[in-house]
Amino acid sequence: MSRMETLTTPLLQVEHLTKRYGTRIGCADVSFDLWPGEVLGIVGESGSGKSTLLSCLAGHLTPDAGRVIFDTRDGPRDVLAMGEPERRRLSRSDWAFVHQNPRDGLRMGVTAGGNVGERLMAVGARHYGDIRAKATDWLGRVEIAAERIDDRPSAFSGGMQQRLQIARNLVTGPRLVFMDEPTGGLDVSVQARLLDLLRGLVREMGLSAIIVTHDLAVVRLLADRLMVMKGGHVVESGLTDQVLDDPQHAYTQLLVSSVLQV
Amino acid sequence: MIRISGVSKNFTLHNQGGAVIPVMAGAALSVAPGECVGLVGASGAGKSTLMRMVWGNYLAASGSIMVGGLDVAQAEPRQIIALRRSTLGYVSQFLRVVPRVPTLDVVAEPLLQLGVPQDQARDRAAALLARLNIPQRLWSLSPTTFSGGEQQRVNIARGFAHGYPALLLDEPTASLDAANREVVLSLILEAKARGAAILGIFHDEGARARVCDRLVDVTGFTPKVAA
Question: What residues does each domain of chain A span?
Answer without folding.
Answer: 107-173
